[in-house]
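We give the entry.
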Amino acid sequence: MNSENVGLFSKLDIRVGKIVKAEVFEEAIKPAYILTIDFGEEIGLKKTSAQITNYDLNSLTDKKCIAVINLGEKQIGPIMSQCLVLGSISSNGDVLLLSPEEDSELGDRVS
């Protein structure tokens, strides 16, 4: 990785969060969920939409995740997306959420 890319990566604020609410995003063009994620006392709750419908909706509640929280807000239909949940794309096209170790605390920085 060159020094320019390292500099860009270091500007991202990537944190540990926990999904506290997941609901179907009815107005989305592509199937998606609206997630409310708790990033701990200092940061609080943030909302986002995510095309992770390969997950059972109920299985997402209380699931820890990794998200970028400083990309700014973006209006997506009726919701204001406030973070970007990170995942990998499997060979069959499913998005697999990145998840931290269970001992990680909400709001912990990812580096």
